[in-house]
Amino acid sequence: MLFFGQQGYRVVAHDRRGRGRSAQPWDNNNMDRYADDLAELIEHLGLRDVVLVGHSTGGGEVSHYIGRHGNDRVAKVVLVGAVPPLMLKTAANPNGTPLEVFDGIREGTALNRSQFFRDLTVPFYGFNRDGVEEVPGFRDSFWLQGMAGSIKGQFDCIREFSEVDYSDDLTAIRRPTLIVHGGDDQIVPIEASAHRAAELVDGAELKVYEGSGHGLAQLEAARFNADVLEFIRR
Question: Is the link from the previous residue into 25 a cis peptide, with omega within 30 of 0?
Fold first, then answer.
């Protein structure tokens, strides 16, 4: 956000409901509501010609916003390590992740989320890979943000990023789209996500950061910022 603000752009981000400084409601922690929250923010601020950038579950939120509210206020789309079209392994999605993995995330979140979030930072950033230097600050920041959120909102969100099919939302995108994904993403494996998304979004450009993980925007911040800036300026 700092980088793009320094380039002269107005940069707006929101804390998804249940996170950060947003309220922590018990109900409606689902992607329909997330997309509608984004729509209300965009309308409230009177934003147009927006470049929507969504990471991980945020990529589902951006896609679903367009699926529900259209392309009118959107100029371009950037999906980063994004979950669409579908993470869950099914007969029609054989490269997806088995349900048991997501049940394990539910269990870790419900029973000991502090330790679970701390441990999750290792595959998130690829710190378990040879040659990848651990960055303690990334781990601390991830844990701090996680523990500040609503456990109910986080628990409910697991279904939204894993079991919801966003294929129709991707095909509804009618704006230039950049898809950036780590080739060694251990959280959102690339075969069932970015490769499929690039086929579903008309004219999408796919950039694969070989060997990089799910937190690529932090791990390779300078490269990522430069790629997105070049895409925006076209």
Answer: no
* Nearest residue to 51 (alpha-carbon basis) of 13, 3, 6: 13
* Cα 110 from Cα 106, distance rounded (Å): 6
Q: Is the pTM of this model over 0.70?
A: yes
Q: Under a CB-based contact definition with an 8 Å cutoff, are residues 106 and 158 in contact?
A: yes
How many helices (H) and strands (E) the chain has is answered by 10, 4
What are the strands of the beta sheet with 74-80, ordered from one edge? 50-55, 74-80, 177-182, 205-209
The set of catalytic residues is 56, 185, 214
| pLDDT tens series, the chain, 234 aa | 999 999 999 999 999 999 999 999 999 999 999 999 999 999 999 999 999 999 999 999 999 999 999 999 999 999 999 999 999 999 999 999 999 999 999 999 999 999 999 999 999 999 999 999 999 999 999 999 999 999 999 999 999 999 999 999 999 999 999 999 999 999 999 999 999 999 999 999 999 999 999 999 999 999 999 999 999 999
Residue 30: phi and psi, rounded to 5, are -140, 165
